[in-house]
Design brief:
The complex is a heterodimer. Chain A contains seven helices and eleven strands. Mean pLDDT of chain A is 87; it is low at 1-38. Chain A is of the alpha+beta class. Chain B is mostly helical. Chain B has one domain (2-24, 43-133). Chain B is 51% helix and 3% strand. Chain B has a two-stranded antiparallel ribbon. The longest helix of chain B has 22 residues, at 43-64. The chains are: A alpha+beta, B mainly alpha.
Chain lengths: 246, 154
């Protein structure tokens, strides 16, 4: 199901009208050559998504997803934060059917909306939705105002309240900025699966990750067959994360 | 910035901040240099332009998913950090007198990057570096190759 990312660089340069290789003259007279990217920017031809089958997930599986995320991104060891302050990129949530009292457990994280309220409210453009549907915080621009945390219907974002050290090299985190599930963008860009998905995929297909638009992908085909839902579908956010079994 | 300032800065950078003491380059960078290789196409360009290069790279990675090694901050840390010979642990690259602090101390620049970015190579990276026969870098060139590379800038 994976994409082939190895794009011929020359072809890309040829194909793009404005060539990306350029030479910048610096005031002192030296010239600096900027490289053409050896990988092409992500496009909206893909839309990354996830399908979670809650019937196939035990509570234990969900806890494993949470710890896989903590391992991957290094959150959860905040010692100076209160429980309300502690970051939670993915949570084990219980929902109860009002009529039948049936309890379902599900993993809840950033739903990677097509119309993300967090992006709408961000005053600095730090909340971004990548062309391929992954919603991120650009922490370089984040001023920590937390409007996005208020706007998110899923309570999916956290704020870092304390100084951190020994971060994961692929997941920089720091005090004063907002953070949330990145759909493991650093892995996805390399053709790998998000850490939480990988933690269950050895055992079952309870969580499927893939390109929602690609009609040959497992996620696309499964979504066509099974009944699935978006949480708070009434808000028309068109989430990238879908659930079945609830 | 005014042209005068830039010229002043250039003069400063070319004289005062050249790393004559090769130790302060960091372990992998030292190893590369010892092997007669170099990483940056132009030393004066990286000295002067690294803030711009890093910021450009940052936006490309975050917004467009472009994860090349060129100008990666992870890359700077992995190549330019140095071990404490006594303990075998890495010094944080932004610690006093470490590579990313040496010049900054002199020009009173403080960078906040390392509030979030890891300051030492990760265990996985160290393991890779230790098992590799040669210094690790996805693109290193001998000094002679640098000129050629400048022309063929894919």
């Amino acid at each position: 199901m994976m994409m082939s990312k190895k794009f011929n660089r020359r072809d890309f340069i040829k194909a793009s009208t404005a060539t990306t290789a350029s030479v910048t003259a610096v005031a002192s007279g030296i010239t600096l050559t900027t490289f053409a990217a050896s990988e092409t920017p992500v496009t909206n031809e893909k839309r990354w998504g996830m399908l979670v089958d809650t019937n196939k997930l035990s509570e234990n599986d969900i806890d494993n997803m949470v710890s896989a995320c903590q391992q991957e991104h290094g959150w959860g060891g905040e010692i100076h934060s209160t429980n309300e302050q502690k970051p939670a990129w993915i949570k084990n949530i219980k929902v109860q059917d009002k009529a039948t009292k049936k309890i379902t457990n599900l993993p809840l994280m950033c739903q990677h909306c097509e119309q993300p309220p967090c992006v709408d409210v961000c005053p600095t453009n730090a909340s971004v939705r990548r062309a391929d549907g992954i919603v991120l915080v650009d922490k370089h621009l984040c001023i920590g105002c937390r409007y996005c945390m208020m706007a998110c219907p899923y309570d999916a974002r956290s704020f870092v309240h304390e100084n951190l050290t020994e971060q994961k090299e692929h997941s920089p985190r720091g005090k004063g900025t907002v953070e949330s599930c990145t759909m493991c963008v650093h892995k996805v860009d390399k053709g790998e699966q998000p850490a939480c998905v990988a933690s269950v995929s050895a055992k079952s297909d309870a969580v499927i990750f893939g390109d929602l638009y690609d009609s040959s992908s497992n996620i696309n085909q499964t979504l066509k067959q099974v009944q699935s839902t978006q949480i708070r579908a009434d808000m028309n956010l068109n989430t990238g994360v879908r659930y079945s079994g609830i | 910035m005014s042209r005068g300032l830039i010229i002043l800065l250039v003069l400063l950078l070319n004289s005062a901040f050249a790393h004559s003491n090769s130790h302060s380059l960091g372990d992998e960078a030292n190893a590369l240099r010892a092997a007669g290789k170099t990483f940056h196409k132009s030393i004066s360009a990286i000295r002067k332009m690294h803030p711009e290069l890093l910021k450009h790279k940052r936006d490309k990675t975050l917004r467009q998913g472009i994860r090349t090694d060129e100008s990666s901050l992870k890359g700077c840390v992995n190549c330019h950090s140095g071990k404490n010979d006594a303990t075998g642990n890495y010094h944080p690259i932004n610690a006093k007198d470490q590579f990313c602090s040496t010049c900054h101390q002199q020009v009173s620049v403080s960078v906040d990057c390392f509030a979030c970015h890891r300051t030492t190579p990760s265990q996985a990276t160290i393991a890779k570096q230790n098992t590799a026969a040669e210094p690790i870098s996805t693109n290193t060139f001998t000094a002679e190759e640098v000129d050629k590379k400048g022309d063929d800038d894919e």
